[in-house]
Design the sequence.
């Protein structure tokens, strides 16, 4: 009935839950980062920043945030594309570009966090 | 003449209101190829406007209620010219038909015990008039017609009825043997004219309240089925009997349900007097509608009307309190605010008797088969059926009780469906319509499309409506009616000759309105002649020059013959099958 | 008063246009928009629009008046007229058949898709099925829909995906049956709605609530359906 080949989730509920869950992660991550910057921001040095970011919990949290961002962006942009891009080919091209970009960002993020 | 496209069905129901959809549902369930042909999308039909409820002895409000009591009320309400076999059928089969509706999903309001809510309505009694006011009207708040119509549509969807939505039926097609074999119809969206052929043609086209200038009826209530049947030469029964509903909103004509008075509201004149106590000491505001409407008009004519012109009375509801109004009468509260600029919670609603319902129609038996008379004997018109307001079976006689119209729709829509189903199973054979037969039915449409110099619809319609309003209203008088008949004779020629300037095909509402006006005229003319000829007062037909009921001459149906434009009489049925005859007596409330 | 009406006759017009008509209104009476259209039609019979009950219960005359959807028969001119001008257009988002008449096929299709009828396979007794007043009260605000399409045609999500998003009117009906204590098909109904479009394209814009001439709240009903889908999934 509904063509959802390019859909990320299995169902509307799944998408809806994913979207809310990822939004919560991103909100929490933003709070933590902004909070830390406010507390240490007046004369922040690079080594302080590196030290903060290299803690294991921050790395894991950041990875979670990156994955959430990718998931959130995929569902959101898929929705936008199915609303506004009515030509199948255009939509597939757009979503392809989105998918590749998000994949690149995720890999790049991991490489920054753990290096390889 | 190019050949028309032809569609063939086992049965075609013309009209997608309560009666039509109940009939089509019955036949669709049995698997016959059924079409429901309707000029508006089904849920736009006028049944949707019914408010108060469907009267039926389901013994919910009173566990001892009896359909025979309902039958007694209905016979009395009809002023004894309702057919007692038909009333017996309606009242006894009613509960089954209402429970079916509930099973289909109709969202009835409920009592605490979970059963269907019933409210008191006018003319209802217990124990054959001896047990006081009954509460027998099953309701879904004050939107019962809406709930009923949508439920029927939904169940037709469930059973895959073929709908020809926004198709306008123009005229009946008859074969050389006089059998009705279908209709000519216009698909409104494209303007294409189609011959819809059928083994059974059911007229469920509703009423024609638009013959009057002031009416509770929808714009679409133009008596299309009555017009078609009259043009085909078939008789109409009791066409003088028009119900004026006591409570139409003053100025707008929109309906305020009798349920308002059932819930405890009452009418007051300019002195704040509850005047119905004088006219109907027992039933008061819940007397028969004809009685209440006449009492109101008398108050107004004797100078006790309200407002600057003294031309209406008030319906007082504020004493019921906000909670009752909002839970039991929410739709009324809304309508009153919109059309009377009055919130019934705090102020009374200005109301005036307004044309509401056509008791007459195409005579039928209880199976929906249309009837004509040959040498004074009833004869079935082969192929033609009718149910609902378009039919006169006759359960309402000279005056319909509130809540009985919805029951009439479902009981006789269902009965027609059941009967046609049986006929189809036995096999129906007739000769196909010839090209000449179809051409004959096309006559009116062709004339309208080629006419150039006639007058336009809007002017003629206004003249017709004013004429009926002035000369054939609540109170009638021979002298006035003669004038009205003269005016109508002139109007008849002009309406037959009307022309349209817009001859386009796609969704041409001008063409439709012209065809509707011609139907209205047929109805108006039969009403005028029947009203003038029935020289007595009975039920809704009230004459100043003949103020009393004359059972010796007029305890009968009137039968209008369109070919001679004259009136004859047809006997009333006084022989119910399972109960004793209710003998005519004086009718007081 | 100046009335600007959307006109289009597929047989004679290459494209739609706005026609300005000067209508003289009777003194001291606030007409409804439908009355104004009737006055215009008396002069120009070619103007096409749907109308039936003229009291706001049949849902025929949904149209767009000065930018807002509503029923012409219960919308007083004074309520919508701006700078002395009344602008009347067909409902947005549906194909125009002629003038103010739109093709509502897709709207009806979405309505029928939710199986808008009671499903109950238990044998019925000889009487009605019982329902308490509290259970019945859950249907208030749902069953009153008149299918005028004012809501769905004011909904951007319905404009973008009329084939896949059920739209506010259809979803209101879907919930009307989900909420009915007599209906037994809850699970089947929910299964058919559990895709990313049917329900979840509702973005809570609430145009439907703001235009509904019967004062109903489809957004709230959609929220209830979503909650039912969520609790069913977990």
Sequence:
């Amino acid at each position: 009935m509904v063509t959802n080949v390019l859909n990320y989730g299995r169902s509307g509920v799944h998408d809806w839950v994913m979207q809310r869950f990822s939004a919560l992660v991103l909100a929490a991550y933003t709070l933590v980062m902004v909070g830390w910057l406010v507390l240490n921001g007046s004369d922040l040095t690079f080594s302080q920043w590196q030290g903060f970011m290299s803690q294991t919990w921050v790395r894991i949290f950041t990875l979670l945030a990156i994955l959430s961002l990718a998931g959130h962006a995929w569902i959101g942009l898929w929705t936008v594309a199915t609303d506004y891009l009515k030509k199948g080919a255009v939509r597939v091209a757009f979503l392809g570009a989105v998918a590749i970009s998000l994949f690149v960002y995720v890999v790049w993020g991991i490489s920054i966090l753990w290096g390889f | 003449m190019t050949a028309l496209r032809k569609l063939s069905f086992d049965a075609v129901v013309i009209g997608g209101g309560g009666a039509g959809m109940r009939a089509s549902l019955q036949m669709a369930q049995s698997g016959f190829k059924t079409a429901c042909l309707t000029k508006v999308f089904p849920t736009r039909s006028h049944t949707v406007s019914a408010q108060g409820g469907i009267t039926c002895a389901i013994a919910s409000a009173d566990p001892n209620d009896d359909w025979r009591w309902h039958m007694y009320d209905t016979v009395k309400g009809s002023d004894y010219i309702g057919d007692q076999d038909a009333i017996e059928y309606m009242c006894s089969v009613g509960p089954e038909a209402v429970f079916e509706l509930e099973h289909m999903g109709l969202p009835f309001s409920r009592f605490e015990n979970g059963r269907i809510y019933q409210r008191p309505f006018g003319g209802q009694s217990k124990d054959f008039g001896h047990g006081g006011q009954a509460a027998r009207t099953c309701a879904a708040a004050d939107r019962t017609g809406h709930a009923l119509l949508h439920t029927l549509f939904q169940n037709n969807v469930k059973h895959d009825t073929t709908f020809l939505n926004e198709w306008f039926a123009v005229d009946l097609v008859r074969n050389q043997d006089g059998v009705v074999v279908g209709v000519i119809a216009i698909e409104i969206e494209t303007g294409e004219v189609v011959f819809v052929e059928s083994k059974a043609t059911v007229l469920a086209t509703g009423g024609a309240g638009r013959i009057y200038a002031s009416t509770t009826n929808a714009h679409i209530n133009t008596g299309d089925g009555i017009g078609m049947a009259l043009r085909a030469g078939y008789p109409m029964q009791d066409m003088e009997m028009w119900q004026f509903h006591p409570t139409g909103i003053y100025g707008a004509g929109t309906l305020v349900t009798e349920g308002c008075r059932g819930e405890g509201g009452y009418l007051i004149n300019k002195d704040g007097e509850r005047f119905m106590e004088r006219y109907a000491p027992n039933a008061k505001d819940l007397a028969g509608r004809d009685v209440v409407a006449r009492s109101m008009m008398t108050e107004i004519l004797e100078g006790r009307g309200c407002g600057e012109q003294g031309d209406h009375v008030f319906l007082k509801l504020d004493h019921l309190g906000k909670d009752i109004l909002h839970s039991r009468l929410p739709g009324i509260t809304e309508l009153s605010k919109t059309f009377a600029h009055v919130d019934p919670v705090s102020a009374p609603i200005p109301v005036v008797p307004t044309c509401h319902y056509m008791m007459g129609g195409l005579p039928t038996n209880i199976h929906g088969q249309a009837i004509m008379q040959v040498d004074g004997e009833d004869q079935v018109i082969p192929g033609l059926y009718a149910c609902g307001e378009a039919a006169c079976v006759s359960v309402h006689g000279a005056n319909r009780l509130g809540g009985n119209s919805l029951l009439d729709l479902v009981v006789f829509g269902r009965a027609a469906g059941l009967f046609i189903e049986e006929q189809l199973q036995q096999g129906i054979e007739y000769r196909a319509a010839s090209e000449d037969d179809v051409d004959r039915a096309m006559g009116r449409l062709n004339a309208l499309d080629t006419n150039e110099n006639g007058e336009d619809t809007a002017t003629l319609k206004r003249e017709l409506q004013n004429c009926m309003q002035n000369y054939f209203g609540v109170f009638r008088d021979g002298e006035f009616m003669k004038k009205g008949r003269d005016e109508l004779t002139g109007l008849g020629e002009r309406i037959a000759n009307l022309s349209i300037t817009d001859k386009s095909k796609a969704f041409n509402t001008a063409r439709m309105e012209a065809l509707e006006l011609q139907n209205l005229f047929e109805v108006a003319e039969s009403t005028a002649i029947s009203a003038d000829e029935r020289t007595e007062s009975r039920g809704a037909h009230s004459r100043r020059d003949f103020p009393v009921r004359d059972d010796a001459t007029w305890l009968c149906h009137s039968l209008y013959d369109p070919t001679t434009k004259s009136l004859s009489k047809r006997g009333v049925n006084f022989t119910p099958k399972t109960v004793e005859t209710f003998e005519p007596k004086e009718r007081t409330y | 008063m100046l009335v600007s009406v959307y006109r289009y006759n597929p047989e004679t017009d290459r494209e739609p246009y706005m026609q300005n008509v000067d209508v003289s209104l009777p003194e001291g009476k606030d007409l409804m928009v439908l009355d104004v259209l009737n006055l215009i039609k008396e002069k120009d019979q070619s103007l096409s629009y749907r109308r039936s009950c003229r009291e706001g219960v049949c849902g025929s005359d949904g149209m767009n008046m000065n930018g807002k959807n509503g029923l012409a028969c219960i919308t007083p001119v004074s309520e919508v007229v701006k700078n002395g001008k009344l602008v009347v257009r067909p409902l947005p988002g549906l194909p125009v058949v002629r003038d103010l008449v739109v093709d509502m096929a897709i709207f009806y299709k979405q309505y029928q898709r939710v199986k808008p009828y009671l499903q109950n396979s238990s044998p019925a007794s000889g009487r009605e099925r019982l329902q308490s007043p509290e259970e019945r009260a859950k249907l208030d605000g749902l069953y009153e829909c008149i299918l005028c399409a004012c809501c769905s045609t004011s909904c951007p999500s319905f404009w973008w995906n009329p084939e896949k998003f059920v739209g506010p009117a259809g979803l209101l009906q879907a919930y009307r049956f989900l909420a009915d204590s007599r209906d037994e098909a809850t699970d089947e109904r929910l299964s058919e709605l559990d895709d990313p479009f049917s329900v979840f394209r509702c973005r809570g814009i609430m145009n439907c609530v703001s235009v509904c001439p019967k004062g109903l709240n489809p957004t709230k009903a959609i929220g209830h359906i979503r909650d039912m889908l969520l609790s069913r999934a977990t």
